[in-house]
Write a structure and sequence with these properties.
2 copies of one chain form a homodimer. By secondary structure, chain A is an alpha/beta fold. Chain A has 12 helices and 10 strands. In chain A, strands 1-2-3-4-5-8-9-10 form an 8-stranded parallel beta barrel, surrounded by 8 helices. In chain A, strands 6-7 form a two-stranded antiparallel ribbon. In chain A, helix 2 links the parallel strand 1 and strand 2. Chain A is globular, with a radius of gyration of 19 Å. At the A-B interface, helix 3, helix 4, helix 5, helix 6 and helix 7 of A face helix 3, helix 4, helix 5, helix 6 and helix 7 of B.
Chain lengths: 311, 311
């Protein structure tokens, strides 16, 4: 019998001994020189091909290091249909390597349109076009707009991460609005927690997760106790300014309950001073940056226990 | 010199003498029998081909009737890469026919990711992959997540419609949350109004619009006075239950300031009892339903003045 997404994810995190997730955010002007071609800035098909090679090259490096990758749909959409075909093949490659795929597309709509998005992205090759394990979802349209995604997760053992408190400064505009019951993101947090509490897996966590930015460390620990059955997807370390220390509150006492995304600081590592010695071998730079991030997270949070328990 | 989106849209509405927009929401199980094939439910490429024929067939009918079409991205995404290629060709066909294209994709993200979405969808063939005139955008991530879209609109004379008050019952969960300054959607409404007031076109309306559902008629007129420089995109009539009467508050005294979307009630018109006489000619049924909707809106709202002023 297949496992719920939450258990599949936790099993994979335990196996890889780290909650790190690598974000696949390709950008034309930052591709390794080996993957650039003279016209890749002009021809979408050539650019999409370079994106695919780059992302698959990252997957080949990190498949032994991390449990999941998180492709960012926007950068592929920017290249039109050829970009979408490249995204499709990147997802296939990641799944073939045994990685969990979290599609970061922040979709959201009502009724049968939400059903269409859920079916588009969540499932396997037999029942879903993109066949991802998980999707990020925007809650502005309310509980009935989330429900088709929740239903789909249950039907096909997939997961979603609902935006609760995002890492950007402007996120406060709506999310921090004061209501009778505290900041507005509590409304979303409590709803997501209810959804996950209804269907906890054998680890106590449900498959309806929450996106909580690492740039608000005090809110992370606050929400950790408020949402005991909810897995967090935490962006914001690395290029967005938060550090591994800021993540401590995201985890439960067993080092579970959160996965940590880093994109630019890992996938463009060869541009960084720390890895300048590997500037000629971009994949080794990616590997080294992922390894260092994994070590940082283990040193600064209870996720370090994952190492002890498996070694 | 090219005109701002708001003026292009208003000019087109004046020319067609109606604020009606036709939504392109293809669904496999509701295609006209002529466009169905035995395996169109199984093979994504065949299904995508049927979606393209269907949507282009609608465009061929309504190009003389309305100013704009609104493709719903979700239904194309459901078919994977072949669906995205079909969407691309549907957009091209609509633009070739002189129609304004509003991509209903409800995108939203932060920083450079929002920039990528803006560039993906807004612009012309030389600078944008999908080359639409306008995009729907989700505001949950706050003002700094909207800004890349706003900047792009100014650079390439395009527009966005920001979700303010949606037509679904669950929309109240976040949008109606009581804050110090009224319901939360006022916060979004006031921000959108500020953005549009900064760059009004020659008709007084800016290119940063708002999605306000027709299912809340009292809020429509309330927001009409609160947002004097903002064009509304109003979904919710037809299949979602609102009627032309409910739309009256959306318009200014000249019959401008709002465009009205109808999708299912028009594009699947041959399934409706009213048009059963046209069941064998789906395109004539679409034409008749659009014509009737146009007449209803003209009869029940100040948009009827568009007819007088041009005839």
């Amino acid at each position: 019998m297949p496992s719920p997404f939450s258990d599949r994810l936790i099993d994979a995190v335990r196996k890889k001994q780290t909650p790190l997730v690598v974000g696949l955010d390709p950008r034309l002007d930052r591709l390794p020189s080996q993957l650039r071609t003279s016209n890749s800035g002009r021809d979408p098909a050539t650019a999409a091909d370079a994106f695919e090679k780059f992302c698959c090259g990252i997957i080949d490096v990190v498949e032994c290091q991390v449990a999941a990758v998180k492709p960012q749909a926007a950068f592929f959409e920017m290249l039109g249909p050829p970009g979408m075909s490249a995204l499709f093949r990147v997802v296939q490659h990641a799944r073939a390597k045994g990685l969990i795929v979290i599609m970061d597309a922040k979709r959201g709509d009502i009724g049968s349109t939400a059903e269409a998005y859920a079916q588009a992205y969540l499932g396997d090759e037999d029942n879903s076009a993109w066949a991802c394990d998980c999707l990020t979802v925007n809650p502005y349209l309310g509980d009935d707009s989330l429900q088709p995604f929740v239903d789909r997760c249950q039907q096909v053992d997939c997961g979603i991460f609902v935006l609760v408190r995002t890492s950007n400064p402007g996120g406060s505009m709506i999310q921090e609005t004061e209501t009778r019951d505290g900041p507005l993101f509590y409304t979303v947090a409590d709803h997501v927690q209810q959804l996950s509490a209804r269907l906890p897996g054998r680890n106590g966590y449900g498959s309806i997760g929450a996106v909580i930015g690492a740039t608000h460390p005090e809110q992370l620990s606050n929400l950790r106790s408020r949402m005991p059955n909810t897995i967090f997807l935490v962006p914001g370390i690395g290029a967005q300014g938060a550090t591994a220390k800021d993540l401590a509150g995201a985890f439960d006492s067993n080092g579970l309950g959160a996965i940590i995304n880093s994109s630019r600081a890992i996938i463009f590592a060869w541009e960084r001073d720390e890895y300048s010695g590997l500037a000629d071998d971009w994949q080794r730079a990616v590997e080294a940056a992922a390894e260092d991030t994994i070590a940082d997270i283990a040193a600064e949070t209870s996720a370090g226990k994952l190492l002890q328990s498996e070694s």
